[in-house]
Amino acid sequence: MKQVFGSCLCNRVTFTCENDFSHFHLCHCTQCQKATGSVYAANLFTDVDNIVWLTGEAIIKRFNVPGRSISNAFCSECGSAVPYKSLSGKALVVPAGSLDSEPHIQPLSHIFYAERASWYDSITACKKFDSMPD
Ligand SMILES: [Zn+2]
Ligand SMILES: [Zn+2]
Predict the structure, then answer these.
(1) Which residues contact 121 (CB under 8 A, 6 or more apart)?
(2) What is the C-alpha to C-alpha distance for residues 117 and 133, in angstroms, rounded to an integer?
(3) CB 6 within 8 A of CB 44
(4) Which three-class secondary structure state does DSSP give residue 24?
(5) Which residues have a Cβ under 8 Å from the Cβ of 95 and sit 6 or more positions away?
(6) Which bound ligand lies closest to the C-alpha atom of 61?
(7) DSSP-derived pairing of the beta strands 23-27 and 109-111
(8) How far is the CA of 134 from the centre of ligand 2 (A)?
(9) Considering all CA atoms of the chain, what is the largest pairwise distance in Å, rounded to the nearest integer?
(10) Which ligand sits closest to the CA of 116?
C-alpha cells in the first residue's frame, strides 16, 4: 500500500500514513463550521494506528467539544487541522486538506447535512476565478 504524506501550514507538524482510508466524509455540523471557519470539514478515516508522526507531534493541541463526539486537533503554531484519534479510539481522523499527496478515495458522503450553513446551497452557482479577482 502506498504512503501519503501530510503537513500543516507552517510545516512544523509532518506525518505519513498508508493510503488506506475507509471513509471520506464532508461534515457540515455546526462545530466543524467553527473549527474550519468554512462550510464543512473534509475528513478521511483510517485505522487508528495508521500514522507515523515525522515531526511536531508535541505541539499539537486538541479540543474536545463537550457533549458531542467531535474534536478539533491543530498545530499550536499555525492553527492548521491535523490528524487525531477519534474519541471512541476506533479510528484515526485525517483532515483531507492536511495531505500533500492524493488519497485513494473520493468523498463519499455529506454528514450532519441538516446543520449545513444557509449559504452552502448557493456555492455551486458561484463564479470561478483562478486567482483573487480585481
Ligand atoms: Zn503548523
Ligand atoms: Zn462535524
Answers:
(1) none
(2) 24
(3) no
(4) strand
(5) 41, 42, 43, 44, 81, 82, 83
(6) 1
(7) parallel
(8) 34
(9) 47
(10) 2
Q: How far is the CA of 15 from the centre of ligand 1 (A)?
A: 12
Cα gap 118→78, rounded to integer Å: 28
Return the closest-CA partner of residue 61 out of 45, 79, 43, 48. 79
Q: Which H/E stretch holds residue 18?
A: strand 14-18
Q: How far is the CA of 76 from the centre of ligand 2 (A)?
A: 21
Domain 3-125 architecture: Beta Complex (2.170)
Cell numbers linked to 33: 463550521
Q: The pTM is what?
A: 0.94
Report phi then psi at 26, rounded to 5: -105, 110
27: its cell numbers? 461534515
pLDDT tens series, the chain, 134 aa = 699 999 999 999 999 999 999 999 999 999 999 999 999 999 999 999 999 999 999 999 999 999 888 899 999 999 999 999 999 999 999 999 999 999 999 999 999 999 999 999 999 899 999 999 98
Q: How confident is the model at residue 122, as a pLDDT?
A: 94
Residue with cell 458531542: 68
